[in-house]
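Model it.
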Amino acid sequence: MKILNIIQRYPPAIGGSEVWCQGACRFLSQNGFKVEVLTLKVYHEDEYWHPPTCDNCLAQLGDVELDGKILVRRFSPNEISPVFQVFFKYFLDKRLNLYFYGPHSLSLYLNIFKYIKEADILHLHTIPYPHNFIGYFLGRFLNKKVVITPHFHPGHNFYERPANYWLIRNCDAIFAVSDYEKEYFISKGIEPQKIYVIYNALYPEDYLPSDLENFKRNLFDRFKMGPDTKIVLFIGRKIEYKGIKVLVEAAKRIIHKRDIRFFLIGPNFPWFEEFYASFSEEKKKRIIDLGILTHQEKVNMLHLADCLILPSRHEAFGIVFLEAWICGKPVIGVDTGVVPKLIKDAGLVSPPDNADILISQIEFILNNPEVAIKIGQKGKEMVLNNFTWDKVGKNLLAAYKKVLGLTVS
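Modeled.
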């Protein structure tokens, strides 16, 4: 059986849907499926619309590569002319409520037909990007089974559009990454029998520390840290809805009271760069932008951290919680959407944009290390019991078989 995935980016590009897609593809290829991915030759999201300059190119991505046994085909994105931008903004967006800004790739669109024709299942990823609509219509024209993992952000205006719900409703199956997402889709009138819960998951062996003592020594020397310095991490795309402002507000009020470093890890965006540039040099010594790290550097940072904070207002799931837990660390999230249902007693939740409560929760974690260890261990147990690809992948296989009308063993 051949499964064709179409997604806006694929690792080494960083993102929750990208990581989910790769994990699912690896599990399927390890279980005898032929798996292909069509994606863009893009590492950072800014590259959707503008090619990176030579001094700002973070990764060189090839046209065709193998990720294990997964065949990955990458296509170059196209810059969109101002004329088309006006068309997308004022006609498609304002009048028809369609998100169609991009990214677009003419070479992908010209080749997509032949790859869909060879597939048994077409798997679409990540609302609201336009490749989903183009793939859907070609898949239907070729009489293929079409499934989608929307990675839906409830309440976000890019997602909450009638066209997106139409697409989700008309696919043969919807893979929700949480029970919360499934219930949300049902409340919007999508047939329950078409929705399968396929959690975010990870491979625990990918989260073992490496050369940790040397890494720690270099980190502590670089940022003038001592044996009692506390480490708090944010990991994610540095965009406004991720709650960076409230985290920074809390950090500014804590750094004067104790020896602590707040490390911000993940890709930067223009909003954040302008925001961070306004910090004093003294604050930048305690609230530190590390930018993009390698996977192993991120893992090592998690093993050294006292806690992870993701105060995001919109999340489909929050895979960084799993990453922190598998390293035995407590987490702090927000008390809206899927997050409190995911965290349960393996962390703390606070109202979004409430710095006072966030401060009290950070202080609680740091002042009660034995409790923090127990909370982190609960998270690790939860990951091992529910969120590894060995466990989640079985549900994915069963869902594919039902879509194809095969017997599920």
